[in-house]
């Protein structure tokens, strides 16, 4: 290595392979999250800002990925770590784990995206039977040293050696019971020394080895454990839930220890530059004296509000407030900060852009615009459609008669009602059986993640706004109430005792309000969200009684509408739905399913149509259906006056309009046995048998019906044309688009279109109106997508029916597969999300892209839209923007979500263009 003698010692090992696996905190910055993970990148950024960060270094995500792929760490990694450790020891003036005055370090995970509590951390590495004596002497505090040592053995045993953490907890509880104290801070040095001995015996028994006394072995094993924690079941589950890619890996941060458990002038806390629950500015966070960081997030001791720090340690409080302002102005966003105070000296251990509730996200985005920190385009990237959807959920009725039994910290808003369950296994089991549940725990830990996902809400008797339950719930948009101290939770007996002695048993219904922190017995009724009232036009921004949140949503929606290129239409089948959709901001109807108009009182007419033996009988049935259909369309055109209305001609199999075959067979058999008249039932039964198909969704439906049943489609086209003519005569502005479903070849469309054009011409001649009706098709079969260039010769527009296209591409029957094996596919990671929820970009999406391109090559002015429920899915909307569609269509309730995401898609695509 003589040729490298001029390189800094920390870089010599890296240069051997030309890959650098370790970075000092002084070398990185906040833009290196892919390489250094979020925690490492932000530690580097704070170091660059001159903030008080304990010295340390970061092992990159590339090292983790190499380790996970090969099962071994990169060949150069050990030498690089040694070089950086030597540099750290030189800077600190002490050696890792030395006997007289040991350097201690933490080994902490840090992925690109925050995964609170999902991966591993080990504190106090470097302590041993010898160095604990030196630490006690150096600190002048025996209790502190032995407390730190028992913490190391406990965390190392559970995290690195796989020992059941309950064994350590039980031993700690037994020590407190023997001493007749309730909190661990009341244990003395002698008690903790005995506990260390007990903990080491637990390690020996459970792990089959002694607790390692070599500090470097401790550090290396902890680093490997952090790498391994990337692939734990809980980490995989969290990534699937949050749609975080599985191939990113985690960085590892090795940081010199600072101690919050040195007595009353020391402590640890978590702070937010704004309230993550509401978005309001102020002093928000938790502080815990004489504690290490894990005590706060674990919720094992209830914290005090951050504001209390001003009385406890004014100097540190003032410095922290200044640092918080610096970080928020630098990151231009809500910052989540972890800090430790060691004997009156403040140290920053982490910062990140903080998780927040949906309401806080909208408020903060508009506040930052008003403060001039970000512009409107950036504000749109700070909110999303999933958050908007959360804000549209109902909330508890404040005027209802309720039985409040407790109140905790409002950690994550929402109104959640469900049966009380006390462990994650039961929460998952009951949820899969269709039950709504509330998961109740003293405090949650990462092992509770699957139960938290399954539950409607989470209630804990311990912890604060920065506890594991609160942070994870906010990230998932789950309702959560934490720190309800008056509730006595007994998980072993599966019960909760509330003030007054009432016992809530497992299965009893409870309600929790994540906006107020209130806990109720029984089911509390709900009322509409003010955000929905705003979209419905019942609450007006700027009015004296307007909700502050409504103001923020209104502004963000206005930003989105100004930015977006995609238009947003509604899936609506009647005038009532159409009017509601219009209030929600719909710019037309993208899908009117006419089959829904043939149900109810009209079923008998359809039966006659199906049973018709002669042309005359069939014509009579169609003649009676025509005025009913016409009135349907008149009402639709009136409610959507001036906006496009895409009407899909009859699509489902005709047997859906006939009675159930088993029920009808029984009726016929009974009539025959009683010798009663049953000619009509018999004809119906014969028709049902005649039309029966093994796979009706791929049988006689869509365009095939129009070709096989003479006059059916022409009747519908005539009704559309006459309705449009009537609206024109009434000075209306009908803009009808006729959509032919399930086309697989251009010849089908040509035949139907020729007949439709003839009918439209007749109506125009009779009414004297120029109707300008466009005719297009739904692309919902793979063959249609593959031959889109040919089909475009006969189509004026394409509407992608992504529900059926997904079924036919995957070979799935949606009605069957979602209940049968989708849960297993999601759990095994085959799907990150159901392809019926978010479009499968690689498969279905490729066909959409291909068809859009081919269609426009044939007909440059071809209008392109999508009308499956993907049209209201946030991630899918971005894809449709990229592909170049003109509009998306979705159910009325999802229109605001689609509008917002269309605006975000436009902003993000402009940003990538600039890059």
TrEMBL record:
Molecular function GO terms recorded: pyruvate, phosphate dikinase activity
Stretches assigned to the Pyruvate phosphate dikinase AMP/ATP-binding domain: 74-302, 310-359
Cofactor needs: Mg(2+)
Domain PEP-utilising enzyme C-terminal: 551-903
SUPFAM superfamilies (alphabetical): Glutathione synthetase ATP-binding domain-like, Phosphoenolpyruvate/pyruvate domain, Phosphohistidine domain
InterPro entries: ATP_grasp_subdomain_1 (IPR013815), PEP-util_enz_mobile_dom (IPR008279), PEP_util_AS (IPR018274), PEP_util_C (IPR000121), Phosphohistidine_dom_sf (IPR036637), PPDK_AMP/ATP-bd (IPR002192), Pyruvate_phosphate_dikinase (IPR010121), Pyrv/PenolPyrv_kinase-like_dom (IPR015813)
Class of this enzyme: transferase
Reactions it catalyzes: pyruvate + phosphate + ATP = phosphoenolpyruvate + AMP + diphosphate + H(+)
Membership in a protein family: Belongs to the PEP-utilizing enzyme family.
Protein name, per record: Pyruvate, phosphate dikinase
Source species of the chain: Streptomyces iakyrus
Lineage: Bacteria, Bacillati, Actinomycetota, Actinomycetes, Kitasatosporales
Gene from which this protein is expressed: ppdK
């Amino acid at each position: 290595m003589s040729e490298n003698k001029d390189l800094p010692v920390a870089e010599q090992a890296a240069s051997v392979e030309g890959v650098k696996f370790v970075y000092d905190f002084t070398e990185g910055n906040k833009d290196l999250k892919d390489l250094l993970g979020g925690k490492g990148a932000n530690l580097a950024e704070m170091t660059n800002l001159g903030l008080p960060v304990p010295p340390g270094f970061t092992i990159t995500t590339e090292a983790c990925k190499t380790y996970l792929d090969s099962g071994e760490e990169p060949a150069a990694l050990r030498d690089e770590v040694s070089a950086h450790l030597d540099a750290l020891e030189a800077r600190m003036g002490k050696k890792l784990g030395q006997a007289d005055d040991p350097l201690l370090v933490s080994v902490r995970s840090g992925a690109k995206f925050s995964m609170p509590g999902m991966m591993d951390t080990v504190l106090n590495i470097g302590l041993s039977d010898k160095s604990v004596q030196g630490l006690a002497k150096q600190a002048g505090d025996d209790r502190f040293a032995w407390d730190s040592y028992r913490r190391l053995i406990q965390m190392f045993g559970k995290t690195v050696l796989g020992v059941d953490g309950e064994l350590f907890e039980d031993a700690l509880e037994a020590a407190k019971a023997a001493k007749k104290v309730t909190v661990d801070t009341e244990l003395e040095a002698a008690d903790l020394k005995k506990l260390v001995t007990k903990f080491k015996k637990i390690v020996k028994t459970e792990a089959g080895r002694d607790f390692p006394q070599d500090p470097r072995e401790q550090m290396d094993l902890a680093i490997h454990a952090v790498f391994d924690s990337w692939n734990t079941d809980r980490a995989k589950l969290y990534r699937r839930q949050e749609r975080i890619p599985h191939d990113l890996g985690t960085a590892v941060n090795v940081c010199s220890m600072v101690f919050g458990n040195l007595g009353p002038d020391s402590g640890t806390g978590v702070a937010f530059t704004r309230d993550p629950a509401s978005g309001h500015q102020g002093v928000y966070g938790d502080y815990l004296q004489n504690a290490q960081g894990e005590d706060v997030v674990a919720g094992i001791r209830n914290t005090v509000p951050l504001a209390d720090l001003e009385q406890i340690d004014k100097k540190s409080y003032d410095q922290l407030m200044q640092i918080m302002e610096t970080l928020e102005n630098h990151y231009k966003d809500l910052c989540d900060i972890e800090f430790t105070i060691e004997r009156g000296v403040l140290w920053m251990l982490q910062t990140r852009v903080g998780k927040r509730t949906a309401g806080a996200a909208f408020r903060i985005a508009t506040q930052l615009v008003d403060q001039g920190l970000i512009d409107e385009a950036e504000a749109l990237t700070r909110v999303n459609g999933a958050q908007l959807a959360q804000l549209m959920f109902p909330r508890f009725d404040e005027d209802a008669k309720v039985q409040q039994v407790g109140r905790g910290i409002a950690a994550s808003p929402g109104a959640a009602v469900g049966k009380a369950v006390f462990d994650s296994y039961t929460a998952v089991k009951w949820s899969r059986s269709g039950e709504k549940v509330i998961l109740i725990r003293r405090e949650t830990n990462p092992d509770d993640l699957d139960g938290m996902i399954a539950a409607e809400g989470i209630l804990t008797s311990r912890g604060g706004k920065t506890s594991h339950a609160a942070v994870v719930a906010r990230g998932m948009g789950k309702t959560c109430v934490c720190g309800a101290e008056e509730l006595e939770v007994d998980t072993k007996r599966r019960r909760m005792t509330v003030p007054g002695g009432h016992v809530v048993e497992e299965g009893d219904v409870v309600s929790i309000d994540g906006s107020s922190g209130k806990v109720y017995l029984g089911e509390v009724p709900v009322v509409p969200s003010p955000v929905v009232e705003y979209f419905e036009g019942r609450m007006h921004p700027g009015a004296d009684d307007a909700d502050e949140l409504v103001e923020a949503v209104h502004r963000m929606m206005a930003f989105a509408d100004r930015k977006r290129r995609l238009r947003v239409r509604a899936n609506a089948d009647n005038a009532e739905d159409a009017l509601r959709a219009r209030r929600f901001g719909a710019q037309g109807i993208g899908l009117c399913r006419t089959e829904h108009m043939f149900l109810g009182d009209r079923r008998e007419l359809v039966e006659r149509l199906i049973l018709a033996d002669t042309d005359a009988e069939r014509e009579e049935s169609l003649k009676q259906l025509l005025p009913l259909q016409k009135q349907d369309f008149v009402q639709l055109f009136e409610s959507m006056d001036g906006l496009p209305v895409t009407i899909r001609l009859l699509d489902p199999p005709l047997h859906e309009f006939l009675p159930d075959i088993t029920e009808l067979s029984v009726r016929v058999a009974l009539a025959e046995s009683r010798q009663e008249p049953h000619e009509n039932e018999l004809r119906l039964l014969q028709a049902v048998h005649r039309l029966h198909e093994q796979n009706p969704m791929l049988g006689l439906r869509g365009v095939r019906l129009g070709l096989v049943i003479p006059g059916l489609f022409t009747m519908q086209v005539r009704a559309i044309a006459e309705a449009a003519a009537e609206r024109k005569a009434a000075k209306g502005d009908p803009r009808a688009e006729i959509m032919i479903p399930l086309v697989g070849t251009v010849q089908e469309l040509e035949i139907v279109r020729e007949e439709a054009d003839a009918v439209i011409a007749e109506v125009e001649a009779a009414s004297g109106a120029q109707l300008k009706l466009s005719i297009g098709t739904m692309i919902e079969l793979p063959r249609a997508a593959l031959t889109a260039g040919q089909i475009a010769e006969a189509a004026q527009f394409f509407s992608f029916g992504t529900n059926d296209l997904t079924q036919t591409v995957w070979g799935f029957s949606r009605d069957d597969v979602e209940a049968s094996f989708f849960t297993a596919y999601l759990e095994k990671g085959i799907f990150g999300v159901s392809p019926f929820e978010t479009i499968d970009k690689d498969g279905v999406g490729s066909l959409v892209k291909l068809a859009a391109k081919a269609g426009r090559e044939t007909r440059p002015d071809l209008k392109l839209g999508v009308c499956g429920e993907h049209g209201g899915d946030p991630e899918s909307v971005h894809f449709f923007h990229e592909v170049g569609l003109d509009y998306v269509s979705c159910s009325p309730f999802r229109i605001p979500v689609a509008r917002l995401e269309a605006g975000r898609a436009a902003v993000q695509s402009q940003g990538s263009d600039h890059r």
